[in-house]
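request received
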Amino acid sequence: MQIWAVGGGKGGTGKSLIANGVGMGLAELGGSVILVDADYGGPNQHTYCGLRQPSTSLTDFFERKVPLEALVLDTPVPGLRLIPGNINTPNTDAITWAQKQKLFRHLRQLQCDHVVLDLGAGSQYDTLDTFLLADYQIGVIMPDRLSIENFYLFLKNLKFRQLGNMLSGVGLKEQAKALWKDRAEHGITNAKGFIQHLQGLSSAFAARWEEEQGRLFLHMVINQVREYRQVEVGLAVKSSVQKYFQIETAFAGYIRHDKDLWQNFGQDHPALGHERSVTVHLAMEGILSSILTTQPGESR
Amino acid sequence: MGIQDLNRCRRILEVPSEATPEEVTSAYHRLKRFHGKDAGLALAPTLEEFSPAARQEVLDEIEEAYAMLKAVYTEMPEPAPAPEPFRAPEPVRASEPTRAPESVPAPEVQAPAAEPEELPANASSLRKARGKAGLTLDQVAQETCVRKEYLRALEEETFEDLTRLAAVNIRGYLTAFANTVGVPTDLIVPIFMKRLTDWQGLKR
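response:
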């Protein structure tokens, strides 16, 4: 079973749209897919899928400990099923980190070919951890400065989280903390310099870090493109991610702005179905095929 | 240069191993656009990752990788040529109060002494050809509708006098000049433009 995670910092860039498109695309390719709406702050995968009143949701998992497999709902798309987000949780903050961890553990037990996770905005630890553990990692931006800046912040947090997670493993946590605190004295200005310094300190760290880098391979999508030069922005961001954040990245494609998309929601059919949203549907097919055929090491 | 160096250069230029020389060159120009002075949205200067030093490092890496790949593709004998072929003499304009009598070669960014003769075409061939055709600069200016100052700058490779022009204009003026005095443009235009960009690179 493969886990797909869609993330990328800023809200409203189209993470849910991409997650839904990926889920639908994988189902259309013949896979058995479960979409999981892990956007605790703003769940709406059910609306993308055309389910107006989902009978169950993650609220049942978090509050009533209903097993995850009992929450899986059919959607109008053959092969695509959904676990709706915590639509009826009155206090999203009450979902503890342990509960989110448990959710992730249980996801691995689901019976299907693909689990597609809509992660929601922000850089909370559980979002970062989930993203890091996914088999396919997709980042979404829009061609504007706000979204791109937040995307970089997300990646920076991702890097630091990855670092934090493994530092205790090699017994360097305290030393690294002290080093970061006095970073100016050591001439360290950013994560890259910090990591280089740590690599010099410990060969065990250097080896583990090398290994960890293999876990991060970003497929980048740029959404709501209105003119071609904005596609170039996507390509430039991809290049920056590689050069300034040392994250291996592939440009998976772009989605044109669809001014009529909003009309597709709130009805009893999937919003991104091929008969309703040709623009997005076609673009998603291309993006999915790019992700499925691009392996780490051939991202150029 | 080993295969690992090659792969490293390709990774920096973000091209696959089967990339043609043309693809490498266009990747190089694209990356210069993405990461150069006029880079747009894709850089976030607020983050320390994009500090001026870090940006310079990225640009240097791109230049170095391109120079190395280019050397491999053109099968140049020396393994790692300096990115700038014309590093030698400083401009000598200060000591040159009046503008070039016939025998003084173009002063700016001059190639090492032997080079002008070796190249199949260079700017001084414009002057020679103009002499052969028996045309004055004024006549060429009238014929080409290009201002005399620019023609002189082209003839003498005083690139500084061309900085106000866009590359596309320089190319156009040069082509018109060459055509008028009967120099084959396919030789002189690329060579001149290469020197111009080298000079711009040196100046930066």
